[in-house]
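Technical note accompanying the year-one report. For the benefit of new consortium partners, we illustrate the data format agreed upon in the data management plan: each record pairs a sequence with a structure-token string. No post-processing was applied to the example shown here.
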Amino acid sequence: MKEYEQQDCQLFNTGRFNDIVYAYFVMAARQANTNKLTYEKASLFQLELVNKLCFVLRHLRFVPVTSIIKELLLHNERIFGMEHTLQADDFNPADKWTQHATRAIFFVGGFGAASWAPLVPLLRQRLAIGEDVLGLLLLCIGIGSLFTMPLSGAAAVRLGCRKVLTFACLAYAVLLFLLSQVSEILLAVPVLLMFGAIMGCIDVVVNIQAVIVEKASGRRLMSGMHGLWSVGGFAGAGLFGVWVGGIGLTPVLSTLIAAGIMVVTTLFFARFLLPFGGEAGGRMLAVPRGIVIFVGIIACIAFLVEGAIMDWSGVFLTAVRGFDLSMAGTGFTVFSAAMLVMRLVGDRLVQKLGQKQVILGGSILAFGGFMAVIFAPMAWLLYMGFFAIGVGSANVVPVFFSLLGKQNDMPIGLAVPAVSTLGYLGILMGPAAIGALAHATSLYAAFGLLAGLVALQFVIAQYVYKKVL
């Protein structure tokens, strides 16, 4: 053993070693704060000390080395005043099971939303209300989501994605079942508000987790993860139809089974979720700024287009293009199927062609799709238009969520909820805006506006890529 190593061991034995280590961590913490290092970078900086100490500690065989190192790291936690644990520090975001857990939560989100849709007519019948009151009740879901979305990022940072998502998904299942039992309007309002709030929280935090996991893995994962939300939606709607229409179960029992599937899935994958949640820069409220504003506008347009196709494609086919009422849902079905397929293969496509080419080319394809829907003289060409819109729009939101991990204007814990909130505004505004324009002019003009918004999306996307890439 070298002379300086012997002196270090003697310091340890005299009891002064711990004081020296503690003083070093204080100095390192101050340096980290002065240089505005992230927690992860500061931890790596201080981990160098632990590596140096390990060499000395190996010569003290009577000393429990692991306990000493843990104590040192706990000193570090107290100095920084953070709630991260040793388990969080050792957690690998790129682990395969963490990726599967992220996909599972996306599935639960889509599955819960689809399981709620068949309950809407049941709720209307049970409350004995008209369409106007029902519309106001459904607005409670959007209000609840908009309330929690800007705050969910800070919750993920403070508590970790695992705690927030586990609680939210379990509450999601419980509230879904409660909605099948509600029989009074005064109870329906708070339950729907909470249901929307939880749905918005899941949407934000699972995207924060997905951005962190994708960045850590070093490969494209976001499109496939968003595809699992769609898979959950198809599964929820399909299974409800089988349980009620095929087997003959009651809607309440079918909802109970759906809630049970959500609970079991959540509890199984919860331990693989991230115990941390990125950074929020000390802020609680997610207000977009810098390049995030433009990403949020793109998300708003993408969600607005999707919501408009969902709510108005049937009306357009029957009232404008003269299709039979039984064919009203076919346009949205083709659009949804195209989006699902493209999201499931989107990661490979982006890796092969590049995200800029996929987004800009997709915007051009979606614009052409709207032109076909508006002007196509034949039915098959019209359906090709809906298919083109789905293909072109599918990867816009996943790719730009991935891009948030590369910008420096906002911490990821605030950027994701800010963009999600703007996107959700698009869902809420889209159907109403299209309806107002169609009433004032025509549905042709309304669908022409959607085509114009896709063209605007193309222009904004070019600007974002110039700034970020």
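Partners are asked to follow this layout when depositing records. Residues 3-82 form one domain.
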